[in-house]
Amino acid sequence: MYTLIAIAVLGVLCLIAEIFNVRKAIVPVTIIGLLATLGLTATGLNGSADTYNNMIVDDNFSTSFSCLFILLTVFLIALTPSFHEKQIHKISDFVSIKLFLLTGAIAMVAFGNLAMFFLGIEILSISLYVLAASNRLSLKSNEAGMKYFLMGAFASGFILFGIALIYGAIGSFDMTVIQEAGTSADVEDWFYIGAILLSIGMLFKIAAVPFHFWAPDVYEGSPALTTALMSTLAKVVAMAAFFKLVRAMNVNLPESSQTALMIVSILSMTIGNIMALKQTNVKRMLAFSGISHAGFMLMALLAVSTSGGILLYYTSAYALAGIAAFSVVLYVTKDKDNEDIFNFNGLGKTSPLLAAILTGALLSMAGIPIFSGFFAKVFLFGQMLKAGHIILVIIAVVNSIISVGYYFKLILAMYTKDATENAKSVPFVYSAVATVAILLNIALGLYPSFLLDLLT
Amino acid sequence: MDVSLLLIILLVGAIATFLSGDKWASKTALLFSLAAFGASIYLLTLYNSGQNISLMLQWVAMPKIYLALGSDGLSMALVLLTTALTPLIIFSSFGNSYAKSKNFYALILFMVFAMVGTFLSADGFLYYIFWELSLIPIYFIALIWGGGNPQSRKKAVVKFFIYTFAGSLFMLVSFIYLYQKAGSFLLSDLINVKLTSQEQLWIFLGFFLAYAIKIPLIPFHTWQAKVYQKAPAVGTMLLSGIMLKMALYSIIRWQLPLAPIAAKEYLFYFVGLSVAGVVYGSIVAFKQKDIKKLLAYSSLAHVGLIAAGTYTLTLDGLRGAVLQMLAHGFGVVGLFFAAEIISRRYATGKISEMGGIRIQAPKFTSMFMILVLASVALPGTFNFVGEFELLYSLAQRSVTICIIGGTTIILGAFYMLRMFQKVMLGDKNEKFFADINVNEGIVMVIIIGVLLFFGLYPKPIIDLITPSLQEVIKVINRI
């Protein structure tokens, strides 16, 4: 609870700082504030409390995911000033919107009540619409913002309608009541309709196939930093929230919902991967790769009672690799008008460090040891085999092989093509963020139990 | 003192090489590879004196994963092969200059680190990590420092990577499946799992895919010749000399003990497939116009015979396989080095552009001749010992297969000698060919020395590996 308040206050402070003209202090102060919040939140692990009539629940699930979100936001905010160099006078807006987005994100995993959940998802979404359209002179960015807004508003409508139906069936917004209702007595039919609508809305937000059509266009059109945010933080948030919802409603849901989830998961993996193979634009490619990773993460929902720790591990591995990859992409495409692969030609020669980091991040996403992406996949496959989904695992393995195809396209461009431009010095913040993110990724690989044990 | 010492030396060596800068990189790498060789000799003496040099630490509690490094005669033999070849391979590269050599040599040491780890791991998960880890460095070595047309090199190397990665993933699924039954990845726990023969078959095939691609057996060999041709000489030596032994070793260490019923039931399919590779490799080798490609296909034939020996499930087969792995490791590195010596002087791999070298370079010619004879398993060379045992084991299972497999010697003699004739003999070549220099000579003499010494006196190695192979046979026959 205090995490939520602290971050909201930080956001407001940012706006006030602008009034008092201490623009330079905004980013450092925010980062320090966030790190302090992160430390304080982490001390709350292994405790459990509910506040405001069970509106917010602080258990291990919400606390550990909150920590992950705060960490990701720190990275994204650190990248903000150099990315928005030309709009430095608006820095307070960019930072505070990200902070408000973070409050929404935390509300989405810490909710104990569907009303709180909806508040969270709206705060997160509205911040994202604004960020997507934040490059207001660019037609593409405007298009992305508009598209995202229309699609997102639809999805929110579905979610709200679903919540209403669930309320109609159970008579409460409270998660514990909803959870108990299924075990005690038969639930009304419209509970299922509500749950389906809620799931459709969430799958929209996650960008799982067949609800993914908005993602590539929005990812490509948005400013690259926003794309980074959407494909790491926003995706992970939606995934965690969906997990929590399914876990609460699991006892009520019929067997067929498992089958449906499995189909969505297989479709997301496969279609995301196949589409990614054809992309020449790196942002689009990462968007499709994100769709396929969403498919992998959805697998965790098939064994919802035991795979909380694995989902946390998978999302952390994926998001950290994503941050590392995107900070390199941000640097390379900073002054370019597109993000095509040829911009990466010869990066291995012009800036070996960044090329090595991007390689590491892509290897992690492809699932190659010692990066944590590999461990995440192994744990996930192990869980699925335990639950008896052997076909699903084989399809996932085949997809991992396909994904090597497009990740290596980028690696090949960096190491085998000649550079199109001369080496120039890399701004400190890009290499710092990328290095820290990839090191954390590797550290997670070496100490997997650190995260796995939190939620078991 | 335990075997982790070796891994630490190699990992530190890789980092030190990277930090030492381009000028000193090759020498640093050589120093550390010699240190690793010394360490493995030291560990061998400890092992022979009966000390426990294994390591066992818990790494992850849930799922249960151990940092388990075991060592028996089998592992030690392969580790010795690796650490003995590494200094030779590094030293052999002193005649070439590589751009960004600190990256190059650091990657070599890192790859050796991963391969040694593969040979030592006693935990399936750790084993898999090392197995995969060895793939990344060779990918970059072949990609960045390889020769030939960049476009086709890129295609060949990516094909190689995707192929081997795909195979390994199915092995991983097999491991995870076994873990669900055993509750641990330790080899000693995994072999106690009770599986139906149907399950064993799937596990066996999962492993088989990984190993058949890496060895390679037909029809999974299509990546091999191109990669051997395009990779830099060092990369080819690492691939053919050590890396494919990883797969052959793994058959004995992991695949057969974990799925013995399937191995017995389908014995002739796998022996037959391996022997088919022998014949196929020999015939295709005839037609090759490029010396590196010819050697690649001859290697395909030889490793096919080794794989056939392992799948016979006889003590002779396993022992012959290990002996031949060592012999082939040294032999093939020598042959590829000879090809490299020629290409340093003539800058070509085409056999038609060679010839008439003998008159100009008598010393090189004699050394090359010995290597060629060793590769066709002339009695008195190390290869003969291994090949003899392999053929004997085939005869124990089926005389027909033994005869077909035996063609490898006849066919091998034919294409190797024909290649030697075309490359070395004939009228004096118009292009100047400097005879072998001191650095190159040292590498050649050591390799030939090893091949001849163990050809005449293979007892130390047989004594080293036989007890652990008997153990493997006992595990295979437990049901």
Could you characterize what this model shows?
Chain A has 456 residues and is mainly α. Helix content of chain A is 76%, strand content 1%. Chain A has helices at residues 2-19, 23-43, 60-83, 91-110, 114-132, 139-170, 175-184, 189-206, 214-221, 224-249, 255-277, 282-299, 308-332, 347-350, 352-366, 372-386, 390-416, 428-446, 449-452, and strands spanning 49-51, 56-58. A two-stranded antiparallel ribbon of chain A has the order 1-2. In chain A, β1 (49-51) and β2 form a beta hairpin. In chain A, α2 (23-43) packs antiparallel against α3 (60-83). The radius of gyration of chain A is 21 Å and the shape is globular. Chain A starts with a helix and ends with a helix. In chain B, β1 (55-60) and β2 (65-69) form a beta hairpin. A two-stranded antiparallel sheet of chain B has the order 1-2. Chain B is an all-alpha fold and 479 residues long. Chain B has helices at residues 4-19, 21-48, 73-92, 101-120, 124-133, 135-145, 150-182, 187-190, 197-214, 224-230, 233-258, 260-265, 267-286, 291-311, 315-346, 362-375, 382-397, 399-424, 438-456, 459-476; strands spanning 55-60, 65-69. Chain B has a domain at 269-479. Chains A and B meet through α16 and α17 of A and α5, α6 and α7 of B.
